[in-house]
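Might I ask for a little of your time on a matter of protein folding? Here, with my thanks, is the record as I have it:
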Amino acid sequence: MQKLIAELRRLYLSNDRRYDDASLERHLRGEHTMRVDLADGDGLARALVIEFRRLPDDGHWAQLCETANALQTELGLPAPAVSVSGGDSYGLWLSLETPVPVARLRQLKALLHKAYFALQEIDLDNTAVELPPCLHQASGLWAAFINPGMGASFADDLGLDMPPPVGAQTSFLEGLRGITEKELAHALEVLGNRFGTDAETPQTFAPAPASASAGLLLKDATIEDIVRHLHERNIEPTFRFLK
C-alpha cells in the first residue's frame, strides 16, 4: 500500500500533507471515501482530471480515446492514466512535473474540451476529486486505474465489483511521468494557434491514429495485446465472463 501511496503522491499530490498516509490508506481500502483537492492553498496544482461521462452508444469512450491519443501524437504530452469512477464516467489523469497555477490548467482543459470532447459537459473550476482506487459510495462499485486497452469493457458498469489489486494499481502508475513546463507551454501554444481568437467556434480535428508503439493502446487492443501488456508488467490477468 505504501508503494501505491508513494506513486499517487509522485504524480498527483506531491508533498501536499493535508492528506496524511493513514487517511489515504483508509480511503484506498474503502473504509471511507474522501474528495481530494488537487489545488493547494496557493492556487497551484500538479494534476488535471478530465471526466468523460456516459454518452449514448459508448460515445464517452470514443471521446476519451481520441483525446488520450491526441495528447501524445498531436500535443507531444506523456501518456495519461485512465480510470473508471465506479459511477458514470471514465477519467484521464494528467500529471505535472511541477505545480502550476490552477488558472493555467483551466485554460488547458477548456482548449482540450473545445478540440476533442465538446459533447461533454465539464466543470472548469472543480479541483476536488475522488482519488482511485476507492469505493464509490452510491454505486457500491470501485473506482480504479485501468489498462487503457480494456476500457471499452467497462462501458456498461464503469467500476469494479471488487477492490482492485494494489500491485496492479501501482504498476499502472509506475511507468507514467509528469508533463514538463516546456511540454505544457508547447501544448497550450499549439491549441491556442488552432483556435486563434475565436473561442466560440472550435475547429474539428481528425482522431489521431492508434499504433502499437504509441504507449496508450485504446480502442483496438485485442485480448492478446492486453495479456502481453500485463505480463510485461508482471501482472497475471483474470477475466470475468458475463452471460
Summary: Residues 197-214, 237-243 have pLDDT under 50 and may be disordered. Residues 59-73 form the longest helix (15 residues). The radius of gyration is 17 Å.
